[in-house]
Automatic annotation (TrEMBL):
SUPFAM superfamilies: alpha/beta-Hydrolases
GO cellular component term, pick one: membrane
GO molecular function: hydrolase activity
InterPro entries: AB_hydrolase_1, AB_hydrolase_fold, AB_hydrolase_sf
A Pfam family the protein falls into: Abhydrolase_6
Name by which UniProt lists this protein: Alpha/beta hydrolase
Keywords assigned: Hydrolase
AB hydrolase-1 domain span: 2-223
Length: 235
């Protein structure tokens, strides 16, 4: 099971959740920080990510990582576990590499841009500039400016409002568990319900008393649901 972090995430920001989940499932897990995040190579100072930055992570970077680590997904199909932007990347990868996928678990993924998302990302920009958010992110990123501004400037670019993967995800063939908190501040439940309409084998999990990070807000419930879901697929 490969873990794909959120738009401001990294290996360390998962804390012990991947270990807890993989121990419960009896799976091997792979956790990595994408370029620009954590201890990975930071984004160059003037580099601006393209509108297709999630596509490139899904279709270029992740396949290259699997090759570098000698992971043959054709021989042993993989599970992807993605959160937020990582969930979108997981969906895109699964839509392209259909024969290599055992299944998907996506938490608070984005399949299109909503006003709520943009408003929250604008608030994050203010917090980064005016509060101690930069110091907090500095605990998890070698270069917090690389991580924050790469993500924030792309999402807030006017052209990004038209971004959508609603049509592309129709190609997904593997089982999907789409999870979202009812109180998610970065997206409405239409994000995962939109997946279910386009990918009929999707199972939805809408968690009460949960915001944008189900693995932090409801870890025990999430692990139990994932365990049941994966067991049903293997069974």
């Amino acid at each position: 099971m490969i873990f794909l972090h959120e738009g401001l995430g990294s290996v360390s920001m998962w804390h012990d959740f991947p270990q807890l989940l993989c121990t419960e499932l009896g799976y091997r897990g792979l956790v990595y920080s994408r370029p620009g995040y954590g201890q990975s190579t930071p984004r160059a100072h003037q580099e601006q990510w393209g509108m297709d930055f999630m596509h490139r992570q899904a279709l270029e970077v992740l396949p290259a990582l699997l090759d570098a680590l000698y992971i043959d997904a054709n021989h042993q199909p993989i599970w992807l576990f993605g959160h937020s932007d990582g969930g979108s990347i997981a969906l895109l990868h699964a839509a392209c590499f259909t024969e290599q996928m055992a299944g998907l678990i996506v938490l608070a993924p984005h399949i299109m841009v909503e006003t709520l998302t943009i408003d929250s990302i604008k608030q994050a920009k203010v917090a980064y500039e005016q509060t101690n958010l930069r110091d907090k992110l500095g605990r998890h990123h070698n270069n917090p400016d690389s991580a924050f501004w790469g993500w924030n400037k792309r999402w807030l670019h006017p052209e990004f409002e038209a971004w959508s993967i609603e049509e592309e995800i129709k190609a997904i063939q593997c089982p999907v568990l789409a999870v979202q908190g009812v109180n998610d501040e970065y997206g409405t439940l239409e994000q995962i319900r939109g997946i279910a309409r386009r990918v009929p084998q999707t199972q939805l999990l809408e968690l009460a008393d949960c915001r944008h990070s189900p693995h932090r807000d409801q870890p025990a419930a999430l692990i139990q649901h994932v365990k049941t879901f994966t067991a049903r697929q293997s069974g």
